[in-house]
Amino acid sequence: MTTTPPDVIRCAYAELVVSDLKASREFYVDVLGLVVTYEDDQAIYLRAFEEYLHHSLILRKGAEPALAVLAYRVRGEGELDVAEAYYRELGVEVRRVPAGTTRGIGEAVRVLDPLGFPIEFFYEAEHVERFTQRYDVHGPGALSRLDHFNVNTPDVPAARKYYEGLGFRVSEDIVDDEGTVYAAWMFRKPTVHDVALTGGAGPRLHHIAFATHERHQILHICDHLGAVRKSDQIERGPGRHGVSNAFYLYVRDPDGHRIEIYTHDYYTGDPDNPVISWDVHDNQRRDWWGNPVVPSWYTEASRVLDLDGKLQEVVERTETKEMDVTIGADGFSYTRADGADQGFKLGEQV
Ligand SMILES: O=S(=O)(O)c1ccc(O)c(O)c1
Ligand SMILES: [Ca+2]
Ligand SMILES: [Fe+2]
Q1: Which atom of ligand 1 is nearest to the CA of 185?
Q2: Where does the VOC domain lie (predicted)?
Q3: Is the whole model's pTM more than 0.90, yes or no?
Q4: Complex ipTM, two decimals?
């Protein structure tokens, strides 16, 4: 690559296609407590309490639930030309979209990136009221901001190289002693990640994560889902991650899109931030307390649209899959590496 990459600040918004706006509104607004910036009978624009840009999540009504856009904010209008030149040199589809193509967002560059994801780069966006201290409207489960995207892609090293080309750095990864890479977490903002690369059939969206400030907000969301008899929307957790050290919860929206609620990862902003590499057989890598990862978390993810809104085919992963070497694989996972306590917690049950 001769051209320099666009100066990405952070992950900024996602657009999800949902089949039933009313059911989705009950989930994202009534349960998760996101703030509605604007809504009509086709779409709902949502933001979390610390956010002052128009939205960080768009729910758009459509027949096929899928990811429509993952958007990154760049450091200025001038970065749009840089993005356009960079992706043209990559030889992928590049489109310049005029201001207002997306409500609340200025001029943008949209690409179908080398991993098959519809990615948007923008700077200008409409400012709306920041609810940081509007404690009169914060619910007990208040979400503070969008934190990261997690994408399924078959070849993690190739995806890592592409994102390193964009100036992202790795904070943590999961590997085995043959050098297979199962996942990597990469950042531009000084936290553990803006994007996580999870080895698997792709392009698929694994999840979108919002941050809260406190663990009790996550616990309230669980209690709220129990109270409305929607506990089946709790997929995994609450728990403490090994990777990232964040306290977490995964919930599934009415269309199956996975949302993570996440708090308390760590600062990564110094140039010599140490990379943490986990052994895929370490039982505490994905849950610090050694609780098993439910199979659906490994197998299910959202389909992805191309720039014309058409569902894309997925490419299977050819390297070994994490689920195949851990869940149900007695003796292939450990709590203590000395082998004294072999066996995944589910070991004898699956
Ligand atoms: O399950 S992991 O501890 O690997 C993990 C860490 C951070 C995340 O954001 C995540 O989704 C999953
Ligand atoms: Ca077993
Ligand atoms: Fe995550």
Answers
A1: 7
A2: 10-124, 145-264
A3: yes
A4: 0.94
